Amino acid sequence: MIEVRNISKTFGKNRVLDDISILFEKGKTNLVIGKSGSGKTVLLKSLVGLHEVDKGMILFDERDFTSMNFKQRKSLRKEFGMLFQGAALFDSYTVEENVKYPLDMFTEISYAEKLERVNFCLHRVDMDKTNALYPAELSGGMKKRVGIARAIALNPIYLFCDEPNSGLDPQTAIRIDKLIKNITEEFDITTIVNTHDMNSVMEIGDKVVFIFEGLKCWEGTKHEILKADNRYLNDFVFATNLTKTLKKVQAKKEK
Amino acid sequence: MRLFYHLGRYYILISKVFAKPERYKMYYRQTLRELELQGINSIGIVVIISIFVGAVITIQTNYNIENPLLPRYLIGVGVRDMLLLEFSSTMVALILAGKVGSSISSELGTMRITEQIDALEIMGVNSASFLILPKIIATMLFFPLLTIISLFVGMGGGYLTALITNVSTPQEFIYGLQYGFYPHYFTYALQKMVVFAFLITTISAYHGYYAEGSSLEVGKSSTRAVVQSCIFILMFNLILTKLILD
Q: Among residues A87, A178, A191, which one has the least CA distance to residue A125?
């Protein structure tokens, strides 16, 4: 469980996060949605410590991340797994070396055990027999899957995904979404996904938080989102003609 | 004010770089990788340039000592001292600032903008140390070797030119290479190169590590890295020459 209490973050005069409080639950896929520039990525990067918050607390199972020193944070980060927007695989390493990297760095297990773990993680994301390939030889979706494999290599307790679907076709996007949801449930971890893809919301959103101009504007489940009467949320969710038509159809049905 | 900002940030980066490594085995592996990338892959350019510079110095020295009263072995002396005192350390360092400096800066810059450095940080790895320390060790170990290679290849180039153009006999040229040799010049050249290796690597790494924005910015930071490395090499060349040779 991750608890965010009243955090704020400014860059110069620009207030990007304004007094945000959220509870991200364990074993659930928690989605943070909002349009580009709303503060989603800053929120996610603040959670993992890539940005320092100006005020507020971030608690990882009651452990206050904001008051930890460098060593304590480093230790806690070994419980994190993160999937980046562009996958962030190490270009000069093969797929196998990428997934094995955290194991090499932080475990004392033998080479055979590491290889077994790497193959398990790659199998889990349907990337068997790609061990010798380099990131440049992979498609966008494959990179994301290897990114997930690397993120789960050390059995994380918290999984962070920054726009996992960006740049992917709808079918691949759904595949990545399902993979994230299955891994969350299978390993009983706390997952936070940043997205502005409504397909993802409807597919995997156990809990949805809507951020608008740095403020937490709404929170609920994917079922509640369609009936919400928040103007900013509705502008965001029903931005396309397709979704507007769907809403009209649903409204007619309900009448 | 901007200068102090950069100096402070450079100092912070260097202090992060020299922190205790998380896993020595990984650093060792990374250092071997860097030895190949930054060192072995630079041998070619150093050899080619040194041959031609050795040849040119031979012709130019001959042109300047056409007086029949001056002995021909002075051509060998000129080639040796020019290579030893300036070319094989300072000029080779300037060439390496272009090749290795831009490579380091663009590699780290690309890693920064594609979030690979963030990925390391989130795993709990000291990214500055893991990425930069092996490069510093590799260049400080290998660049002096490049100085030695440049010196011998340059003298070889000069020897061949002397032979082909008949400006001096092989015996005279080799006598000149040995005449009045101060071993201290050799250690002076190597000491300079060790300092230059540190400057090239850390300045280039600094610009790459803190690159921001798009790929355009990576290119700009790479250019800045090369220009500043060159300026610092020339400044330290003056300081070290005064300190070591005086």
A: A178
Long-range own/partner contacts, residues B27-35 (CB < 8 A, 24 or more apart):
B27/B130, B27/B133, B27/B134, B30/B130, B30/B134, B31/B134, B31/B137, B31/B138, B33/A92, B33/B134, B34/B134, B34/B135, B34/B137, B34/B138, B34/B139, B35/B138, B35/B141, B35/B142
Chain B nearest-CA distance from A232, in A, is 30
Complex ipTM over 0.90: no
A5 near B CB under 8 A:
no
Burial class for A43, CB neighbours closer than 10 Å (0-12, 13-18, 19+): buried
Name the amino acid, one letter, at B182: Y
Which residues on chain B are in Cβ contact (under 8 Å) with A105? 22-23, 26, 123, 125
CA–CA separation, A145 vs A173, rounded Å? Answer: 11
Strand partners, A132: none
**A224-238 burial, b for 16+ CB within 10 Å, e for fewer?**
ebeebeeebbbebbb
Domains of chain A: 2-79+158-254 (3.40.50.300), 89-155 (no CATH)
Structure-token match 């060159």, residue found: B230
pLDDT digits (tens), chain B, 246 positions? 788 999 999 999 999 999 988 889 999 999 999 999 999 999 999 999 999 999 999 999 999 888 888 898 999 999 999 999 999 999 999 999 999 999 999 999 999 999 999 999 999 899 999 999 999 999 999 999 999 999 999 999 999 999 999 888 999 999 999 998 999 999 999 999 999 999 999 999 999 999 988 888 899 999 999 999 999 999 999 999 999 987
pTM: 0.89
Decide: A24 and A190 in contact? Cβ < 8 Å. yes
User: How many A-B residue pairs are in contact by the CB < 8 A criterion?
Assistant: 57
Q: Which of B111, B118, B126 sits opposite A50 (nearest CB)?
A: B118
Tokens of B141: 């170990």
